[in-house]
Amino acid sequence: MTAAEPLHLHLISxxxxxxxxxxxxxxxxxxxxxxxxxxxxxxxxxxxxxxRIVEEIARKxxxxxxxxxxxxxxxxxxxxxxxxxxxxxxxxxxxxxxxxELLGQAATRRPGRQHVMDQAYFRRVDAINYTMVHDDGAQxxxxxxxxxxxxxxxxxxxxxxxxxxxxxxxxxxxANIPLVPQSPPAPHVxxxxxxxxxxxxxAPDRLVLIRRNRLLSLGQTPDTDYVAMERIExxxxxxxxxxxxxxxxxxxxxRRSIEETAAAIINLHQARSARxx
Length: 277
What we know:
The chain is an alpha/beta fold.
């Protein structure tokens, strides 16, 4: 393909396709400036459905990435791709093969088994519901906050809400509490026994830009105390003092994505759980 041609990625799954989307995203991130047009083809469980999809793929040829359990559907896709001269890859095959050898058993052939409504599924739903209710949970009672797995604290625009939502999708009940010098958290926050408290911080100059862009996106003037460097430096210093006084682990989100911040928080939570087990 030439630089002028778009890269088409065809993600074919007999389930929701979330796994393939994650694989494609992680793989593309390894190539500077690489952009791709992703075509999602979920819930492909019959040869007739597959044939209709292959007709579309032939019009926009590219890399075919697939996870298909049904042998007949899989064989048909591989045969059609070979005929069309399309590159294809099944990214889970090596992992499944290795696990099968180590466990001494064949993998199940039921599509979408990772999405069954088991205990973990309902735990994730509960976590999402809890997290949405306790976004900006400064006024929550001690009993409510004790139900959390994780509580995030930080000044405004330190990614508390998106990180909370990401953690909730991983099954962690997460509350977040904004830190404002004029209105510090209720004393009971520092005496909670169940949840892990984590402080989020960032560089003041980065916070100025984030807050300014936020105001502009809302159609508001950026010339307010909310984006004043002196005020922001005081807020960040106030938060850091609170974290130090109460021995709260701190994560600097300045150069971290939401996923990276969440991964660091999960590591802290797992380490804490291991110590108390």
